[in-house]
Predict the structure.
Amino acid sequence: MNRIRVKRLLKKEKQPALFGGKYRFSPYMACGHQCTYCDGRYEKYHVEGDFDRDIVVRENAPELLEQELPRLREHGPVCISSGISDPYQPAEKHLEITRQCAEILSRFDHPTIIHTKSSLVLRDIDYWEKVHRKSAFTLMISLTMTDDGIRDRLEPGASPVEDRLKAIGEFRRRGMNAGILAMPFIPFLTDSTRQIGEFLAALNSVGAQFAIPGLLTLKKGRQKDYFLKELGKMYPHLSMKMSDLYSNEDYYGNPPSGILNSFYRTVEALWSENRMSDLVPHSVYQGQFSLYDEISILLRDMKTLYRKRGINISKLKIASQKYTLWLDKRRTYYARRRNLSYSALEEEIRILALSGELERIINNRKLSEFLCRVINGEVLNYRTLKLK
Ligand code: SF4
């Protein structure tokens, strides 16, 4: 274990979304959950040493969080996560760095998001409930299967399936948001129609509000080599098949597009059959971001939702680009004037909507009327595509 002190903690996300929040930090680097497929091993993430054991602890994270939170100029969720560690990994049990951060966050009014594969998050549920009462708390548990035997081989240090489902159920029972990062499904091991169907039924039984799906990526080098070596020990009959499937050496580690498309077709059918959302619903993220970010996220999701239903999105795309251009300019203006509050930018949007000026900016009357209703607090149902 390597304890370090860092100079800054919170990083602002370029594209806010409930998946990654508006600000992000991680108390740790590397991870004792030891997932065999973890892409934190990829060389370009610069995690040195034994990924499963040489955990880097940012021991002054709570101190910095307390200093930086009051200085944040824009409203938006703080996400405790990183692709290369888990805030509730085994070391957290005795170090309690995430717990100290939870206590600090419970005294502020920033929405918070946690990504984890551990039911240890339940230890701090009282703090998270306080955060939720003041603003909003969203738990995102990473899980893709119901078979705990497979889970034990692929994710030996993470919590059993049952415990992760119970955590989701308990957060939902207490009225908090909770959903699933359903990634990565492993080809030949956890991606059959039967397995995914059972998995979605289990998620529905505990009240998960969404499940964001993704297929295994294997990036060339340490991550891919480690996974194929471990898979060969556990499932020798799959070794060659997997190696062939990922022999295309895609930069992002994806399998060939035909495989990817077929996976997403299966996912789409099963998600729809099980009435599960593959995006974080508007009803979950509404109010967690500044209004101008909420509109950006909504426009992005609408493009995805409409495209999937075969609806022509060319006009939506143009209007959305115009909105982004306008917002970028206004953001630059506010960023350069530190005496201005970003709440004035929210107010600007409300005034633009009321005065009809928004229609001129995005050059789309229908969308502008739609956004006015969103600004007035209506929520888009991602299943019916209707506002309420
Ligand atoms: S929990 Fe996440 S960061 Fe930790 S080993 Fe597993 S995939 Fe990697």
Summary: Residues 31, 33-35, 38, 40, 84-86, 117, 158 surround iron/sulfur cluster (CB under 6 Å).
